[in-house]
Amino acid sequence: MNIFKSLSQGNGQISETNITSFLSYLLNTSNELSNSFLLLFFDLMDRNSPGEKIYDLLGLNHGTLREKIIHFTNNYVVSATPEFPIRVDLTKQIADILVRVSAKRDETDVCYILIENKIKKASANPSQVSKQFEYFTNSAEYEQDVPVFSVLITTDSPAFSAMYKNALAANPDSVWLRWTSHTERDNSVEASLRQLIRHEMVAEITPINLNTQFIIKSFMDYIATEFSQKGTGVKNYSFNGFDEVASASFTLNGENYVLKRFGNNMVRVFNEDDEVLDTPVKPLLREVNDAYGFNIDLYHSTGIAKNTQIFGREIINALNNN
Description:
Elements lengths: L2 H5 L8 H12 L8 H12 L6 H5 L6 H11 E13 L2 E13 L5 E10 L9 H10 L10 E7 L6 H10 L3 E5 L10 H13 L8 H18 L10 E2 L2 E11 L2 E8 L4 E4 L10 H11 L16 H14 L1
Parallel strand pairs: 3-4, 4-5
Antiparallel strand pairs: 1-2, 2-3, 6-7, 7-8, 8-9
Helix pairs in contact: 3-8, 6-7, 8-9, 10-11
């Protein structure tokens, strides 16, 4: 089983905390990647930035990736701190990651990157990124006139557009990145990770330990499968490590839902934002059966009641054939 799928919290659901923590590790100077992914991440930022370019700021516009890494490592050090509290007076905001780039020569801060990770549409908060920027630039952590980049990383969904629009209004150096892209294959965090592996294969960067390679590839597989889309436009999903094998949408009492069946035959109910609902499934299946007039028998011919797995499969098939 994929290590990230097995470590996901909440019954196998996607965990923003898990993903944020691993991204923080990838960006930190103290890891064994020797800043190679960090510079690929900076390049991704620049390709999506309407404002100042971080490559210009750090003098990284010339040479091969290896030469850029050497220049950066000789001149700068990076710390990436997850769940960073930004305090102003008696209030605070939490940045998912604060990346601090400092000069080695005099230890002064060169720039800051405030990263906010969002993977569920329901968690979109239009003012969150702009408020973090406001708090940070008024906090004791901020050195006056040092550039601040606000980076919003999300799944590829327009649900986060308002967050980015407000972030850009507050900070012209705001960047919106996607974990995966459904339209631009080479413009995502996943694509930058694939670049990292390709560069290592042809010895353009220092070798990566096999165990670390395995973990990175597991992470790539995790975000690629969890955040990709099928031809129907429905997000691929796994639950407790089992892949989705069938699904059907339905409306009940004016609310829209999705029934999903997984590789171990269990059936779960999700809302429009693809979040699993903590509700008894079988009574809801009976409601759907009655509301849609399917008249599916609740019992086997032997008189034994059908379990949720069998009844759920029949309801999903009926909805898809309706």
